[in-house]
Amino acid sequence: MKILTYAICDTATDLANINFNDVEETSSSTIRKSLDESEFVIKWVEGNTPSFITDGTVTPSETLSHAEALALMVTDAWNSPIP
Hints:
By secondary structure, the protein is of the alpha+beta class.
């Protein structure tokens, strides 16, 4: 089983710098964005931190475990309630 690391990044400054070959998402259309689209989530296999993060090109606002990412995804900023 793969253990994944999740990162919250800024859409305006970071999205263009993501190398989708280094993360589990395939393109900018497959990432999960916050409702206001100001942030997005990427994930990678633990221990294989993408070079765009290690070299400082992208600086995530948060790095999360799977459980922490799931908890974030149910917040009002990421999930709208079904009426």
